[in-house]
Specification:
By secondary structure, this protein is α/β, with parallel strands linked by helices. Helix content is 42%, strand content 16%. The protein has 14 helices and 14 strands. The chain has helices at residues 7-18, 59-72, 87-100, 111-122, 137-146, 158-166, 191-200, 223-226, 255-264, 266-269, 276-291, 294-312, 332-344, 374-388; strands spanning 28-29, 37-39, 42-46, 104-108, 128-132, 149-153, 174-179, 204-208, 235-239, 249-253, 324-330, 347-348, 351-352, 362-367. The strands form three sheets. A seven-stranded mixed sheet has the order 4-10-9-8-7-5-6, sandwiched between helices. Helix 4 (111-122) packs parallel to helix 5 (137-146). The N and C termini lie far apart (55 Å).
């Protein structure tokens, strides 16, 4: 008699349900815009998008993609080391290197792949990685897959990192990895301190700018540029999938670094290259980041206003310094109830639960975009007063 070897899955899902942790797929209708989306049959103001500059629907990007598809088709058909890397891929990598003020850059299928590829190439058995407690899952998985010893330091704790570095003299190589802008808390890493420690202890420093690329800095390069620490950061990871409105990730740095990734990064050469049309979208987005500075200026002005209003009204927003503004609720069940009440009032604000955040730190994650105007923000604030109190 056969037995259902997967019966345990239903039991585990039922446990997730009891703990208010079960996730279910939903379908968005229409375009991804901050000022409104179709969600589960309702029209909602969208505060759950990472399309920070509102470029996902920009006509210049859409036109660039159409032209690229008409010219070269859609699928790339092969790994970038076989025949998958086309002229637009190469042009985008050159442009990314120029944008990042680095010698070279390499395009990956996703930001997740870029982090895993870079970290596993930089550290391995006999090495040690120091990782911030609140780093993105792609960084955590890259650390695990590397085979290196991993030391997790409390979030943003410079003194703890220093102590760990002091005790790590027996390793071959040392790598410090951190997000620049943390995706749930909206705060910055103390990058100047990390750069000093990397220099003092002969460590490599990798910074993931995923949520900061296009938004911060005079030229939109991110928090490293904003804080003036670019020269002290050895490896920068970014993504095209958030403020740049497309999909794909990249690593930028020295030319030897990029050559090393070409030869060693398994997520790079064991994946089919992304379509060239994605590279066309990236090139158009970089032009817009350069030409339409008002997009990030307006975004940051309204982000500062929202943070000030929420803090004045007594909501817990942590140390957010960005367009990502959490309202820390605590319990998962209460968080999801608040998110549901906001949807009833016409607002999509995602509830974030473990494992995305630590137990007891569930939150509502407000993502502001260029498309959010003052009137919509005022209405959101009024709705939060009803839903979260």
């Amino acid at each position: 008699m056969s037995h259902d070897r997967l019966a345990w899955i239903s039991e585990e899902l039922a446990d997730y349900e009891r703990r208010d942790l079960r996730r279910r797929l939903a379908v968005r209708g229409g375009a991804q815009r901050g000022d409104g989306i179709q969600w589960q049959g309702a029209r909602l103001a969208n505060f759950g998008s990472n399309d920070y500059l509102g470029l996902a629907t920009h006509p210049d990007i859409c036109q660039a993609v159409r032209q690229a598809v008409e010219r070269g088709g859609w699928g790339s058909g092969a790994s970038p080391l076989i025949t998958g890397r086309g002229e637009l891929h190469a042009r985008l990598e050159e442009r990314l290197a120029e944008f990042e003020a680095c010698e070279a850059a390499l395009l990956f299928p996703s930001g997740f792949a870029a982090n895993v590829g870079a970290i596993t190439c930089l550290a391995g058995p006999g090495d040690v990685i120091f990782s911030d407690q609140k780093n993105h899952a792609s960084i955590i998985d890259g650390c695990r897959l590397s085979g290196a010893a991993v030391r997790v330091f409390p979030h943003g704790d410079v003194d703890a990192l220093r102590t760990m570095l002091c005790d790590a003299g027996g390793f071959r190589r040392r790598l410090i990895v951190t997000d620049s802008l943390f995706s749930m808390d909206g705060d910055f890493a103390p990058l100047a301190d990390f750069a000093e420690l990397a220099d003092e202890y002969s460590a490599m420093l990798l910074v993931d700018e995923a949520h900061a690329t296009g938004v911060f800095g005079e030229r939109g390069r991110g928090v490293c540029e904003l804080l003036g620490v670019e020269s002290g950061v050895h490896v920068r990871v970014g993504t095209l999938s958030k403020a740049l409105g497309s999909i794909g990730g990249f690593v930028s740095g020295s030319r030897p670094l990029i050559e090393w990734l070409v030869n060693r990064a398994r997520p790079y050469f064991f994946s089919t290259a992304p379509p060239e049309a994605i590279a066309a979208a990236g090139l158009a987005a970089l032009d817009l980041v350069s030409d339409e500075v008002q997009r990030r200026e307006r975004l940051l002005e309204r982000s500062a206003r929202l943070r000030a209003e929420l803090a004045e009204r007594g909501f817990r927003i942590g140390n957010s310094q960005s367009q990502i503004v959490p309202i820390i609720v605590g319990e998962a069940a209460r968080t999801m109830e608040a998110a549901a009440r906001l949807r009833e009032q016409g607002f999509f604000v995602p509830g974030i639960r473990p494992p995305s955040v630590p137990s007891g730190e569930s939150l509502l994650r407000i993502s502001l975009t260029y498309h959010h105007d003052d009137e919509t923000i005022d209405r959101l604030l009024a709705a939060i007063e009803v839903a979260v109190r």
